[in-house]
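Morning. Coffee machine broken again, so started the prediction first thing and wrote up yesterday's gels while waiting. Chain of 536 residues, entered below exactly as on the submission form.
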Amino acid sequence: MFDKGMSRRTFLGLGGTAAVAAGLGLAGCGGGGDDASSDSGSGSGGADATLTAGLAYQNQGNLDPLSTSSATGMAANWCVAEGFFEFDYAKMEAFAALAASEDIEKVSDTEYKVQFREGAKFSDGTAVTPDDVIKSWQRAAGIDEEYKGNIYEPMLTFIDAVEADGDTGVTFKLKNAFDPEIMKKRLCIIKICPASMSKDELTKLPVGTGPWKYDESTEQSIKLSVNENYNGPKPASNPVEFSVLVDNDPRVTAMTEGTTMVCEAVPADQISNFEGQGITVDKVQGFNLPFFMFNLKKKPFDDVRVRQAFFYAVDVEKLIENALDGLAQPATCYLPENFPGYHKASTVYTYDVDKAKSLLEEAGATGTKLTLQTTDTAWITEIAAQIQQDLIAAGLEVELNSQKSSDLYANQATPDASGVCPYDVVLASGDPSVFGNDPDLLMSWFYGDGIWTQSRYGWQGMEKCTELQTLMAKAVTETGDAQQDTWNQCFDLLAEQVPLYPLLHRVTPTGVWADKIDGFQAIGCTGIDFVGCKAK
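Came back before lunch.
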């Protein structure tokens, strides 16, 4: 599970270069600050230093701002690509990025106009045009032929058409009335990229309108330089380098030795060590979650009693205490308690091995042999062993198999010629709050009519899936108490059916040499946003 030799080779392979900010923890950096360097052990500093951090997630090779679901790719794209609006993860609200104004013009309940900022250019020097916006929407929404089945599609299905509005704006025409506040947040998803770029070019080194531009992307690191054509309100001052240090050992070593300024996903057992060395560790409750995903096209996992048994079988409190050092909350809803729209679900799972055994017996599934497929993300592998033992204690025969996330979804969660995925059950992590925090968006990611429900766990078309999606479609046309009531019905249905469902919601611990970076704010979601930040 954890190859320390591999960890050291990965670390040494960086050649001592500075590494940068990525995945899980800080955003919304402020500008300004003291340019004086510090005497701390946090590596070479000064106002001209590269902003650096060690990442806990793989660089999966897809940086396409219009399709990537990679934690590392998302973090890098926040620096490089802009939507009309971007999301402030500290304040949990959208702000104008490429848009000329903080407001969108409402023409009617189903029509909105947005202008982009005057003189906006991509990092290659070409001017932004309405055609670029239209093409970016077509790609993100899966309308473009090359992007059919795009994973973003379920979050954007409410948009019917996008049309040019003069030379510097577009009109969004919607299929039905849509909550205007959610509309503004949803536009954060559509990053504007040149229509002339091919899908292959966008995947490797995309071009955007943000403060930085891509220089290089490898499995080990991503390097960014300042975009001299950026004309927005938050220009970059320093280069950025993200280093991929998935295993805990090299990521911790890079931070404590001062090679990096930021450490993503600080291991719980290293927090006191970091703080003792003068590293600030910010801990923020977020959405990031480990989930069970069941193959509903395989027996006995099509039986809701079997799926529920898994959640009763796992001692989540013990998991949080032992493996996560208390840095999590048990799931009492699909959303964590601090998120807007939270509602304690009608079904809340607590550790009850007898109930788990009873449900398995009722379903005729006692003694079922299965392989629990997991990603190789360090904290997932750390919780997998206890989960395996808990499931065995409930009467299941469970083997573990860990692999890279990209390999798991390609090899296990992609249907074969018969239309069935090979896997039995998956234990993996997810955090769609990198796209925003409204309940519809967070549900649309895993439960909308898209790749997850259609292919990965096979729920699409089943009665309860249709019922959920009908409720979701209704909620976004409502406001206030009526909207919350409909969302509550969604959360209750999900907690009962659990085709894919969280065990807990993590607190995000992020380490920062605060004397080297000005303006960081801790956030709870996966990803680091350097926009507006400076090295000291």
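The longest strand covers residues 504-512. Going to sketch it on the whiteboard this afternoon.
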